[in-house]
Design brief:
mainly beta, globular
Length: about 160
């Protein structure tokens, strides 16, 4: 699996549920289609800002994945009573996160949340639905994209 960007091909990992045109919360699939980059987050205690428009991840930053939450598939702040994912992780996977517009900003509950582009654990290790890259490739891409850059995920 690979992603083409600026004339280069980058190996990547996708969701353990494969590719899907029927994405659902918790299915582990990466949604096919044309998506746009909607934001960039980074850990300021670990890396420098990769782009002027990148937003730092703070210790209380979370991402709601609770279908009953009115802030489903949005950035929220701890303490938070609904199910969520911590953005400030102990591992380096979210040191740099590109937010896609999958089911965002007008999220449909249950259609999938937190479809990000981030660092992979290792080559071939699947994600929960995100697209993941080797660290240096992710940083190279992040330095060259802008809000609205397209991510095209074709059917298999």
């Amino acid at each position: 699996m690979g992603v083409r960007f600026s004339g280069r091909l980058f190996p990547c990992s996708i969701g353990k549920g494969g590719l899907s045109d029927q994405k659902r919360e918790g299915d582990g699939a990466t949604p096919i289609g044309v998506h746009r980059i909607a934001g960039m987050l980074y850990r300021p205690d670990r890396i420098t800002p990769p782009a002027p428009w990148a937003r730092p991840i703070g210790p209380h930053d979370l991402w709601s994945d609770d279908v009953s939450d009115s802030s489903y598939n949005h950035l929220v702040t701890a303490p938070y009573p609904f199910s969520h994912e911590r953005l400030r992780r102990s591992d380096p996977l979210y040191d740099l996160v590109l937010i896609t517009d999958w089911n965002w900003p007008n999220a449909v509950p249950g259609k999938g949340s937190a479809i990000f582009i981030h660092q992979w654990r290792r080559p071939g290790y699947s994600t929960e639905g995100c697209v993941a890259f080797r660290r240096d490739h992710l940083h190279w891409i992040a330095e060259r994209i802008s809000p609205g850059t397209r991510l095209i995920i074709p059917p298999a």
